[in-house]
From TrEMBL:
Organism of origin: Digitaria exilis
MF (Gene Ontology): glucan endo-1,3-beta-D-glucosidase activity
EC number: 3.2.1.39
Keywords from the named record: Glycosidase, Hydrolase, Signal
Record family assignment: Belongs to the glycosyl hydrolase 17 family.
Lineage: Eukaryota, Viridiplantae, Streptophyta, Embryophyta, Tracheophyta
Reaction(s) the record says it catalyses: Hydrolysis of (1->3)-beta-D-glucosidic linkages in (1->3)-beta-D-glucans
Full protein name: glucan endo-1,3-beta-D-glucosidase
BP GO annotations: carbohydrate metabolic process
Stored Pfam families: Glyco_hydro_17
InterPro entries: GH, Glyco_hydro_17, Glyco_hydro_17_plant
Amino acid sequence: MAPPRTVLLLCCCLLAFPIPGPLAFESFVGGYGINYGRIANNIPSPDKVVELLRKSKIRNVKIYDADHSVLDAFKGSGLNLVIAIPNELVKDMAANESRPMDWLNQNVKPYFPETRIVGITVGNEVLGGQDQSLYQPLVDAVKNVYNGLKKLHLERQIETFTPHSEAVFATSYPPSACVFKEELMPYMKPLLDFFATIGSPFYVNAYPFLAYISDPEHIDINYALFKPNIGIDDPNTSLHYDNMFDAQVDAAYAALHAVGHDDMEVRVAETGWASSGDQNEAGASSENARTYNFNLRKRLFLRKGTPLKPKCPVKAYIFALFNENQKWGAGSERHYGLFLPDGRISYDIGLSALLPSSASPSVFNNKVRSCFCPF
């Protein structure tokens, strides 16, 4: 038996240098991720989806719920998974801290860390949305979910955030003039202050496609698709933008700057281009979708920043993995998928598929395979 003095010395050392807990997963590896939506009745089973993701070397995945069949399929896959608390549960999560604990005990604790859950989204596009009764509950729900993770000692391993649409901004052109809508500030400010305290990024859903179809007469489609164009110069910063995606990201940074959050990272929770749509949805075509997604993938692969934040590499989740045939709304909503329901590619941007594709060969094909490595 060690002498009492030795035991006392050892105890003092342990208090001074505590044994670290489990290492936190990196919440986003590289710059490229994908949204795995499942509002469809014809897409592959979750285990086939894992096979597809690994074959395509896509490591960051975001879903819109916490379906246990998906959580089971991702066990041991090594893929980073973000799960979600949908909007219809936000009020429930805000009511008290016991409900988030129940949710975490059902959907996180039994799976982590074998399933690499790296984030939880609380709601989606709540602020600026039509249901204003969710605005204040969103702030409370985010805090309650984080406190639940803290009680499980998982707050450093699992990120808490909420994605916003462009509807939270009063203006976004030029990028430096972007500010949050004044009527949203009673909710946005405490949310941002809390995220700054816990180190969460600001997530925005950035869609050049939606901006383009809203005003096709005045927006150069080449600017939206990352194709050669004259671009724009921001008169306030003299920064030049040759694509709308970077401008949208920097607009979010400008809005954060205006409310005193210069150090908060902006990440893109959704971006994509529809391969088909309704007659009034200009630019929704397979060729434009292929062009946008190829150029976006190439841009994210470079892991570079934006004109305003050149040292902060942009990270983005692409929308979406599959066409979702049961989504409601405009025709484009059902045509964002990079893959067809049987696992073949919708169009060729250099991703591998479960089955050989009948899609026409891409002019980008050889370039893609020569310049891309795993994300």
